[in-house]
Amino acid sequence: MEKQLRRNVLFNTAGSLIFYFCQAAMNLLVTALAGVEANGLLATAMTIANVALSAASFGMRTFQVSDLSGKYTDRTYLFSRYLTVAAAWVGCMGFAFANAYSAQQRWVIFLYTGYRLVESFSDVWHGYLQKAERMDIVGVSFGVRGLVTAATVVAGLLLTRDLVITLAVLLALNAAYVLAVDLPLARKRADLAAKGGAGVGALLLECLPLAVYASLNTAIPSVPRYYCERLLGRVELNYFANVFLPVLVLQVAVVYLFVPFITTFARLWQGRQKAGYFKGLRILFAGLFLLWAAGAAGVALLGRWGLSVLYPTTPEILNYAGLLQPLVAATVLTVAATVLCNLLTIARAMKGLIVGCLAGLGAALLASPALIGAYAAWGTAYATILGVGVQALCLLACLLLRCKKQFAAV
């Protein structure tokens, strides 16, 4: 099991990072190969598709893989995903037609949203693989589809110079991989013939707080950025975002690193294994401290050099290098909050999730105008730290209260 866990961590982290980097590179590739106007079309589609992806996923993945008692069957999870993906795609296109977009923009929205919803559709199948401790297969899937994404964008735009055709091929290839590879492998680990248990409606209703939490969780770090743009302008927000980008890679990597351990924590929780569970928590928080120490040391030694390498045409960004240290702190707190949200989902502490996210959102809303007004772009980082920090503390308090009840008789 330990060998398989190491394999899961390695493949899932590597594959997911490849997928993340390739998606992040799409804007750069489209701008270079098709021009700024085409990238503007894609940027609009990305904003809308992110909302659709969140709605389609319904915050359900951790809930699914931690349903060790089989309250809901594998068929129920699958049928619920059919509904949420279809509703998200229809809602997305309804929004596109309700606004005065051009026909080309609507096609870009339709195809790019479809491409992202393939990710949401595959997510439920990946849940079956995760419960079977085969996150290595999931990592390979993400890695392959990430490379396919980058290669398709480059080849499609070089050959056709047409963003719509390129996105159509991208959607088709990603869907084909999921249908031809992921589904057969996941179907072997799923029991789609089993019936009984609660139905789709009950599942969606029970997971509704998770969907709400997902929206609130996204809003917390977005609030300081909103006030940064409103109070300081787009140029300052651009510098803030560019400095944050290399730090964000650290955040994404660590979150993906934790994913294979969700099943382990679920088994410890379900089995009321108090000693093992709290040992896992201690290791987790020790790891977060080491992450902060390594990140802080790394940006102190290499931060300015790294920014100069990433942005050679804008040397003025070095004036914002001091942002790196508070952004490392914000990143570690964000990872802590994300992990705690997963642990509360395993514990089925839905109220705790909502309370923690509302507290963080309230702190960010109250603090952002004052901190940004006083400290400019640095205030954006401080407001992010405050919002996510309050969220993490509230989530931790809720988790410890839930643990006290769960392990009371142990």
Key structural traits:
410 residues, mainly alpha, globular, 85% helix, 0% strand
Work out the number of β strands: 0
Low-confidence stretches: none
Estimate the strand proportion.
Answer: under 5%
- N-C termini distance: 26 Å
- What is the count of DSSP helices, taking H or I runs of 4+ residues? 15
Q: Kindly provide the radius of gyration, computed on alpha-carbon positions and rounded to a whole number of angstroms.
A: 21 Å
User: Order of helices and strands, N to C?
Assistant: HHHHHHHHHHHHHHH
Outline? globular
The total tally of domains equals 2
Task: Please state the structural category.
Answer: mainly alpha
Share in helix = over 70%
Largest sheet entry: none
Mean pLDDT: 89
How would you describe this structure to a colleague?
With 410 residues, the chain is mainly alpha-helical. It folds into two domains: 2-198, no CATH class; 208-406, no CATH class. It is built from 15 helices and no strands. It has helices at 2-24, 26-34, 36-57, 61-65, 74-98, 103-131, 135-160, 163-187, 200-232, 234-258, 262-270, 274-310, 324-346, 350-375, 377-406. α6 packs parallel to α8, α9 (200-232) runs parallel beside α14 (350-375) and α13 (324-346) runs parallel beside α15 (377-406). The longest helix is centred in the C-terminal third of the chain and has 37 residues, at 274-310. The mean pLDDT is 89.
